[in-house]
Design the sequence.
């Protein structure tokens, strides 16, 4: 794996291919998306996941819907249905709605629907790659400064969930500064939260850090506070699925607790985000961001590889126990040290965001 691998790509016959992230880290399986229903299912069942990749998959989903409509001589209502189905695929990551809105405007202004849908989806993908690369350019000085403070010693970074290249197209958001630091020879070590219940940290972040040769250690989700109390974390960097106008940040469940512990231990807590994850239409993340609730079996069962090499799902509680499965939580802006964006780093506040993105004034 290198920083040039992509998580979504097109074939010469204009099919869309993605990595089945449910199979990682044990198997690398490629899935072909041939219809918008395939794209919708891939988002819902988390074959693809991560805010930017969800947006890109939905965009290509609309391209596939346009193709199905033309090839089968279907009415425009088929496309409307594709938009509404994809809009309902997951609720929290705003990139989904942003990408679908972009596809809608591209089609509203198009002469050739198929070319317009293809071009717009391709643009969304290319822009995300450059955006994530720039997040790395702006985030790198934070890591360089910590390396200097440690007299060239290792910089310990803690992260939660997967906001790496697997959640984006290339580079990733939190991993872009990390990969760029490693390329510059800076010593970096990453504490990887396993991120129950879907284990995106254990399955995905650990996988891509391994493939990129980045030193890392997997920890259970409750370990971060202890590490912070003992000076073993220099900085926390997490991703986000939606960031509000006042700088509140929704990210994978458990992020808020890391931010609280960071505040208590005076450890910088940064959020890396492409501006496509900003939702400038809302202020208060706690009341206005829809939090996904998923199937309780994701909590009750754990999937893993047995010593015999079989992938199995095992029950870890009494069959009749009820489980709650909230996918995300909201970290209030007051706990966020800064937002690392493609245009630079800003305070997590309306004024901070507007200083980099004045077009939202
Ligand atoms: O449920 P997931 O795996 O889609 O959640 C992903 C996250 O919470 C990521 O941290 C976030 O989307 C940022 S991805 C760059």
Sequence:
């Amino acid at each position: 794996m290198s920083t040039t691998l992509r998580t979504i790509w097109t074939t010469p016959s204009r099919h869309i291919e993605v990595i089945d992230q449910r199979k990682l880290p044990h198997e690398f399986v490629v899935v072909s998306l041939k219809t918008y229903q395939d794209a919708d299912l891939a988002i819902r069942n988390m074959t693809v996941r991560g805010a930017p990749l969800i947006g890109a998959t939905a965009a290509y989903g609309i391209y596939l819907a346009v193709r199905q409509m033309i090839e089968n001589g279907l009415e425009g209502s088929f496309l409307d249905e594709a938009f509404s189905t994809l809009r309902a695929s997951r609720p929290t990551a705003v990139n989904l709605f942003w990408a679908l809105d972009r596809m809608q405007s591209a089609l509203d202004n198009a002469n050739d629907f198929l070319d317009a849908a293809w071009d717009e989806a391709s643009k969304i993908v290319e822009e995300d790659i450059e955006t994530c690369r720039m997040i790395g350019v702006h985030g790198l000085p934070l890591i360089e400064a910590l390396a200097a403070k440690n007299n060239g010693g290792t910089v310990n970074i803690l992260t939660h969930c997967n906001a790496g290249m697997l959640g984006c197209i290339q580079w990733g958001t939190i991993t872009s500064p990390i990969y760029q630091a490693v390329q510059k020879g800076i010593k970096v070590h990453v504490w990887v939260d396993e991120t129950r219940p879907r284990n995106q940290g254990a399955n995905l972040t650990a996988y891509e850090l391994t493939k990129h040769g980045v030193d890392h250690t997997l920890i259970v989700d409750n370990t971060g506070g202890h590490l912070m109390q003992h000076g073993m974390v220099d900085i926390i960097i997490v991703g986000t699925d939606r960031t509000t106008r006042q700088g509140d940040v929704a990210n994978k469940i458990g992020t808020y607790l890391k931010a609280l512990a960071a505040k208590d231990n005076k450890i910088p807590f940064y959020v890396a985000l492409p501006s496509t994850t900003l939702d400038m239409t809302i202020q208060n993340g706690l009341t206005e961001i829809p939090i996904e609730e998923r199937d309780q079996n994701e909590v009750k069962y754990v999937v893993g590889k047995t010593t015999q090499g079989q992938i199995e799902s095992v029950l870890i509680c009494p069959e009749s126990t009820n489980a709650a499965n909230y996918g995300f939580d909201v970290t209030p802006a007051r706990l966020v040290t800064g937002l690392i964006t493609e245009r630079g780093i800003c305070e997590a506040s309306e004024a901070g965001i507007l200083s980099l993105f004045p077009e939202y004034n």
